[in-house]
Structures are given as structure tokens and as C-alpha cells.
Amino acid sequence: MKGVSVTLDNSKNYVDITLDPASFEREIDSKSLWNELHEGQFKSLYISQSALKNACDKANHYFKTNDNTPVQERIGERRNTEVEFKISSDGLTATMVLTAPYGGRLPTADILCNMAASAGIVRGLSRKRIESLLVSLNKSAPGAVIEDEVARGLPARDGRNSRFIPLVPNALERVLRPQTDDNDRVDMRNLGEVICVKIHTPVLRRESPTPGRDGYDVKGNTLPAVKGKLLEFKMGNGTVVSDSDPNQLNAAISGMPKYRDQVMNIDDTFICSGVNVGSGHVNYEGAVLVNGDVTEKMQIKAAGDVTINGFVESARIEAGGDIIITEGAMGKMSDDDGGFSCQLVAAGSIHVQHGQGIDIQCTGDITVGRQLAYSRLQCGGSVTVGQVGNPQGNLFACEIVSQGKITAGTIGAVSGSTLKIDFSPGFSKLLERKDTLDELLRQLRENNSRHKEKLDLIKTRLLPAEIKVKVDDAVELLKNETSMLNWLELKALEMRQQKDDYQAAIGVVANKRLYNGVTLKLNNRNWRSEREYDRCKVTYENHQWHYHPQV
Fold this sequence. Notes:
Elements: E1 4-8, E2 14-19, H1 30-37, E3 46-47, H2 49-64, E4 71-77, E5 82-87, E6 93-99, H3 109-118, H4 127-138, E7 145-152, E8 163-166, H5 171-175, E9 179-180, E10 186-187, E11 202-207, E12 215-216, E13 222-223, E14 234-235, E15 239-241, E16 248-251, E17 255-260, E18 263-272, E19 282-284, E20 287-290, E21 299-302, E22 306-308, E23 312-313, E24 316-319, E25 323-330, E26 342-346, E27 350-356, E28 358-362, E29 366-373, E30 376-379, E31 383-385, E32 394-396, E33 399-401, E34 406-411, E35 419-422, H6 424-459, H7 465-505, E36 507-514, E37 518-522, E38 525-528, E39 533-541, E40 544-549
Parallel strand pairs: 14-18, 18-20, 19-21, 20-22, 21-24, 22-25, 23-25, 24-26, 25-27, 26-28, 27-29, 28-30, 29-31, 29-32, 30-33, 31-34, 32-34, 33-35, 34-36, 35-37
Antiparallel strand pairs: 1-2, 2-4, 3-4, 5-6, 6-7, 8-11, 9-10, 11-16, 12-13, 15-16, 17-18, 36-39, 37-38, 39-40
Protein name: DUF342 domain-containing protein
Keywords: Coiled coil
Pfam families: FapA, FapA_N
């Protein structure tokens, strides 16, 4: 390009341009000239667009005014790699930012390590990460910026509080975990020894809290750990702290152990060989263990768990804990009032090996060993038919009200008999609680905003001393009201999350087959199986039921 001369200075580090307006054929375009410089011998050096434009604008002005004064300007330079370190606010990580050189030198890993130390990074520096960044830098175009984490501290690990380890299993856990024989085969009939402990038997152990582990940040500062707390025993009924070991809880009476919510209870246990006309009804303020059958029209009512190692026929059983029936339960529906002759009512969970014609009500989960048919179920948890790890049982011709997932091998029957599953009652209660909380929250927001505006207005005025005291009291009341509002805001968030969790938890899983005649309901959203499906699941997403085949 005539009239343009670009050279390096004597130190070979700077780029100078000389523009001679007398030699111009036309005005110089700074963009075109900048593009030419980046394609020639100066492409690896830093060229300042603004400096180049200023020089061109000045020379073009001279060209138009017939002024032949040459224009000399320094427009570029050779730049070495730029290095910057960024340390996070908590000091646990450090990032290195590298800007690729313009014809300058690349640093070595040793130089970068020394620079990191000068920047205060003395622990957790990874030389391997630095070397990896240098490899990337070597391949980068001039001026490219790359960054990555090169140092990492060790966060403090707080100590663990005391943990409580039950030394004996609950009766329901024993039933859901059948024993294996010498050939490692599971025997569904062998449920181990009946869990009934004698007096002075160790039932609960407290593990000591741990001290935790101190950490450090990249600057070398120690991050102290918080020691775990020694938690006291929550003393349940029928237990006592061991005289020889303060971390051990022993049974104070002989009975059936029940561990729930970190509380171990020993229920005074009534043990009998069967409940029939000869024994009479059982009403006991403790646990009941029946090593036999419960015959027709008999009743068992217990404050604790009820465990029946036998068969239940057309009887009523009520428990303040769990109901465990190791064999089966059977009844029939009354033609008069639609009631069932076999009724199981529990405050906890219910397990039955197989059942037909029974009315089950509980606040926990329902587990069935093999098959359940022609029954009515209402539970606050899930329904599982088959082994808990791999449910392959049969479920058909039932009416179910549940708040959790229904899982079985085969759901429904070839005959198309109706199986109704309703998830609405639990969801409706949840929505009712949520609406009540939202309304309370709305009123409190309005009140809090109004009170704050009035107090701000009062503070702007000149007040007598006796009025200021009352204003200070009002400010304190406003703080308490604001704290209450913040607490309710968190509760509202939790309630919304519970609503989402409920919808995600419900549904049906058929591990073998889902037959025609199965209906699902959540308020006004319904789904019905109109044909036979292979392994599948039905879930509730985005306010609709969705069918998913399982491969």
C-alpha cells in the first residue's frame, strides 16, 4: 500500500507506522490496513485498532488538505503472557487466568508456581493443572483468555453427632427380610426367631460423637471443624441405661422391641398360641404376639405391634403400631352394608403374606408378600405386592386410596376386573393446608407492609420522649412480626415443595403386566388402561397422567 511503512523499532518489541500523505493515491482505510497487518509478518503481535485509526485519520486529513507532513505513530507491541490469580471469597479455590501472548514469551510451570506463591496461594496448588493450562495456552491464538481452577483447599468436615444403633430389629423389618438357608436360597417361610427380648437385653447403642477434621484454605489458613454433639437417649417405655455402659440402653422388661424416631420402646408383650373362641378376644396395653391362627369373628386390640404367626380369617385387628401377619388373611364382603368381615387397622404399617376380602387401613405403608384381591385399602404411604427389592406379586379387583406409589408384578386381571386407585384425599388435604397458609401469609404481608410504612412516617417527625418509648416498643413488635413473616415464607416454600413431591411420588409400577380395567385418579385427572400393557409405569407429570413402557 503506497505511502504506508510498518517497521519494528530497534528493540524489536514495538511496531511503528509511517504514513506519507504525498504518496497516497486515495484515503487510507484503517480497517483494511488492520486486516493486512494481521495477515503478514505482524500477525502475532498486538496491534491497537484505536492507535491505527488515529494515525490513518490524521494522514487522511493531511491528504485532503494537500499537507505532505508524514505521520509517525506507535501502533503495536510485543506482549508476553498475562497472568492473573483469583481467590474465591471463602478461600477454598483459586483460579488462574492466562492471556495468550502477542509474540511474547510463554511462562514455565516453575514461574507460574512462584507467581502463585507471591499471590498468597501456598496450599492445594496443582502443578498438573498448571501444566495442562500451559499446553492449552501454547495452542491458543494471541489474546485468547483461558482460565481454570489451579488450587483447592480442604473444607472442614464437622464432627458427627451421636448416632443410635438399634441392636435388635423391629418385627416388620424381620418379616421383610426373610432368612437364607445353607444354599443361600431365600426361604419365605423362615422369618428367623420371634423378636421378643428378655429383661436386661441390650437393645440400643449410642456411638460417641466424632471430633471432625480441620480443613485449610489456599492461603494456608486453618479452617477449624465443629465437634459433634453428645446426644442424650430419648428414653422410651421399658428401657433403662446400662449400669456398666452409659452408651447402652437395656430392656427394663421382657417384651417386643420397637425402634422409631430414635426412640426404643419395649412393649410389654402378650403371647398366646391362637385367638379363638377358647381364648376370647384380646385387648392389651402393649404388644401382642400370636403363635397361631386368629379365627372368625375374633378381635385383637393392642397399643403396640400385633404379630400373628399364622392365618387370620374374618377377624378384626387394631394396633397402635404395626400389624404383621406372616401367613394370610381372608374375609368376605357383606351384601347389606358393603363392609368386610376381615378388618386390619394400624397406626403404623401393615404386612400380610396374601389376602382376599379384607379391609386395610393404616397411616404407613402396606406390603403384601404374594397376592391381594377383592379388598379395600387405605394408607398414608405406598402399596407393595411382592418382595420389597423386586415386587412380582399380583394385585387385582381392589379399591385403593393411597398417598404413595403402587408397585406389583401384575396389576389388574385378564378378566378386566376393575382396580380403582385414588390418590386424591391426601392431595386434597395438602392443598387445603397450602391454601390456608397462603391466605395467612397474604394477610401478614399486607399488615407488615402497612405497619412498616406507618412507622417510617412516624420516625420522620419530632416526637416527645414519652412517645419515643412507645415507638421503640412498636419497632420491636415490627421486628417480631417480620421474623414471623420470614418463617411463614419458608413454610410456604416447604409446602409448595411437598405438593411437587406428592405428585412425583404417586403412580403405578407394573413389573410384569398391566391389564385392562385399572383406573387412576388425582382429583379431576383420571387415567384408565384400555388394553393390556407389558412392563410399564404410569406417573403424574405436568398435571397429566403419563404412561411409560419399561424396557
